[in-house]
Every structure is written in C-alpha cells, then in structure tokens.
Amino acid sequence: MIRILGLDVSKSSVSACLLTEKPEVPRQFYYECPFNCFSANAQGIKQLLELKPDIAIMEPTGVNYSKIWGTHLARSGVEVRLVGHKELKNYRANQLALPDKDDDADALALACYYFDYHPDQRRFLQIRDREIVRIRELVLRLAHLNRVQSPIVNRARQDLAWQFPEVALVKSRRGESGDVPLLWGWLAGIRKSTRYDRLYKKTVGLGITDTVREHAKRICDLQREEHVIEAELRELLTDSRFDHYRTVFKQFGFGDRLSAVIISQIYPIEGFLDASGKPEVRILKGRNSKKPTKRHLSLRRFQKALGEAPSMEQSGDKKKTKVVGGSDLCRKSLWQWVYTRIEPKRSRLKNDIGKTLGEQLDTEKAAGRPVKLVRNRVAAKATRFLFRELVKFCPVDAIANPSDDKLLE
User: Fold this and answer.
1) CB within 8 A of 184, min separation 6: which ones?
2) What's the CATH architecture for 131-237?
3) pTM as predicted
C-alpha cells in the first residue's frame, strides 16, 4: 500500500496530509482528516519522517522555504514531486470543490492530485538533479545581487554628481581576474588610480563624503560575491551533459549567465518531447477556422518554460494576448539579450539567426510598432529557433531531427 504525503509549505512549518488512497468525498474528508503541522526544526523533521511516506507532493514554494523539507525527504529515500501553483489551484477548486484556500486544503489537494494523475509525468513539474538545482540557486542569487546592487550604485552616482561630477557617469566594470571595478575600488580605498587622483585634485565637486565611500565598499563586496558565483557557474556548465547545449548557445551569442538561466529551465530537452523522442505535434480542429490545424505542443511547452508563450484572453468583443507563466527571470534575460545582441547592428550576430531576427526587428520598428512589443516578439521567435537547434543537436539515438519548417512560422 503506497503512502502519499501532501505537503503545503509555509515560512517556518508545513501542513501534512498522509493518504493511502484517494477519499471518495474529498470535501467531507477535509473536515475529518487528522492533518499534521510540523515546525521547521529538528523535532518537526523527525516527526515528518516518522510518517514514512513513499512519495511526497509539494508546490515549488521558492528555493528557501521548500528546500529544507524536500532535501530531508530525499535523503531518507522519499520521492519528491512538484505540482505547479496554477494546476493545484484549478484542481482544488474545480475537481475537489474544497473550501476556501487554506494550508490543510492545499495539503489534501496535493495528496489527491497524485492518485488522479500519477501515470502522467507531464502533470508534474520537471524534477531536476543536484547540478541543475545548484545552477538554479546560483542564477537566482545573481539576480538577487543585481537587485540589491542597482539602488546602491544609483544612489552613489547621484551623490557623486555634486561631490565628484567628473566620474559620476563613468562605467567601471570588474576585471576578468575578479578585481573590483576600478572606480568603486578607488572610492573604497581598495585600489589605487593615478588618473582618479589627478581628476579629484582638479574637481569642481564639493568633496567625497564617507557615505559614498561606504556605498563603494558595499558595491565592491557585492562584486566579489558575483565573481565567486560566476566562477562556480562556469565550472558547472563544463559538465559534459551540457556540451551540445553550449554548442547551440554559441550560435545565439549567449553568455554564461544567460546560458545558466536557460539550462536551469529546460534541461533536459527530452522532457519536452514525446515518448519516441520527437517534438509532439497534433492535428486539431481550429476553433475559428474549423480546419485541421497543427499544434506544436512540445514547442509550446518549451516556450512556456522560458516565459515566452503568449495566451489569448477574450471577454465579449475584447481580445488581447499576454504572456503568462514561465520564468520571469528568463523572460527578462532574453529581452536583455535582444536589446544588446540583436538590436544594435554593430553587435548583431554574424549568422543566419542574427540576420533573420535583426531584419524582423528593423522592419517592425520601421513600421512604427512599439519597441517593447517588437523586442518581445523577436525574443519569442528566438525561442522557436532555439528549440529547433537544441532538438537538432541532441544525440541521434535519443531524438529524431525535426524537419517541419512550419515550426518556425
């Protein structure tokens, strides 16, 4: 008899529901079930493991809250599966008709979800191995450091505008060896610069305050931490499993950061394909045309994982398309890639990918379309190219090479 544990994770505790079979009337069972609540401490972990579950079902509640529970369960030999927030919400409300959302209702819904959908692996989020989890953690840490660093840099530059205006807009970058940026290092007293010494002697500014120097020290500390994380990311990306991914990424001019972001979302590419290792394409009747229409389901799932799958919303006579779901960080990173590697003609990729995407961007901008919309459309098209190339470069034994040109329409 299999023991399924539904876990709803909070900041410092979990609500747990252990089932050996799905209740006939989940709504009634909700009022009778002996739910457990365990705190995030040694005693709570011990009590959770004493339930001896075979499989635990959780939501991906960030890497901070759920990590401790998932790690201890995995170390004890318990299989951990993840269910998306949107999928669980619809399942709980529409199929189980449970009361208003609370932790116990979510725990029960998670356990029931397994019994209804366990044969279909696509109903569960992709389970990543240790290296992929680590890559994702590092990518999120870099994004966090960037968010922390930006307001400090902005504040320092605003102060420098009246304290030392000659350098207020200088773009100072970290060296390849990991040295902190020269400007911030000089302001913090960490690095020497005769150029900045000379400029400061002749400045029209009112003099550098201790506040700006403290800001510079914080920026240097954050830059050092970034350098350490980037070095670990580069090491992780040298794994032989990522060889063909890196080969494809070079065609797109992706740097280490963007490569890591994308790999953390789509590895392995086989997870988006059908059982035979081919892109899943179905012929379905069009909702409006009523004619047979190809649906590229694998491509759609791939784009959604990268945050580039638009969805149609219609209410009465109003229709609009917007992107929902997927990785916000990946969507932002791809947008920045378009902005820096496709839009500027001097930096544009010197291959067919850069030419095709660049021509589309130039044409749409010349037609007067909003620049933000144009960049988003180009990023979405780039993900279609990326899917094609990743499938093409995968091992022949695992995946057939798609030949359907309409994949790129």
Assistant:
1) 156, 172, 216, 219, 220, 223
2) Orthogonal Bundle (1.10)
3) 0.76
